[in-house]
Amino acid sequence: MRVEHVSDEEFLRYARLTSHPIPIEQSPAWDPFDASVPSRSFWRRLAVFEAPADADAPPVCVVAFTHHVGNGFTYLWAKHGPIWLDEQSARSEREVRAALRAYITEELPAVDFVRLHAAHPAPDLCELLQTVTYDRTVVIDLTVPAEDYLAGLAKKFRYTVRKALGHEATTVNDETGMDAEAFAELYEIYLETAGRDGFGIFAVDVYWSMLKALAPHVRLFVARRTDGPRPGRAVAWLIATVYDNAAVYYYAAGNAEARDTDATVRLLWDTMAVLRDEGVTQFDMMGVDSPRAPQLAGVGLFKRKWGAESTIDGAWDLPLKPWKYRSLRLALRLKRLLRR
What's the burial of 167, exposed, middle or buried (CB within 10 Å: 0-12/13-18/19+)? Predict the structure, then answer.
């Protein structure tokens, strides 16, 4: 196989030959967000072709890479890539990785490993050095009318949705254009959520940069309460990306009051109603638990109430410098042991 550096236009033309929405992280729309985050930058969009070349044949796959600089290491991440146009077998994945390894080693020799997605585990792939991947998600079909969709939910959850919709003191609005001072209130809710559920979050600047850099492909919806001593207070919010008629439930938070009033349910329902009316065709809830991601069990329990899970390609590390990668893994293991 051979690898070619392609333009944004060529990449999108090839990617649209598939029957699936293009992941926003692989699209040019994502590049400004990468540029806004220190230690990250867009690298290249590539197409992988069969060799010898057939001038009229499309590539086997296309893939976009972001360059990451870590503490003592560098890597390329093709988040939700490659995008496959041909059969995605274990053999084809292996051959594509071999071609990418040779190309990247030649073009960017300082890179220690590549992170990319694959359907088939293989000896050259490793579990992620850091962060959590997921290989199952829940995708809601927004082309189904709301009442038909509601009728298909479990009886107990239908009751929860209807109860949430009946809370007159809860309002949900698209507040994508809010300023940084107003967003600080939402970040406090995220801090509460992270502390309660035991996960780490980024500094507020990362989420604010995302809202600015990805516009108009990102939306911020906020649930507020109109009752009580402080009417208009935020209780829950979510950030969703919208690209190629597909939405992704990227970040979300809800405080204790939101849990007591089912505001997170109302928030999701109203968000999907707005997107459905705008012609968005699917809403990806972005990851549930599996044997590779047991720590997502809490969110998985909530997300599966909205629909059936489906299997997707999880992320893997492809070491380009095996000795360096082994030393990084050992250093991280020792670091975690010292924290205990």
Answer: middle
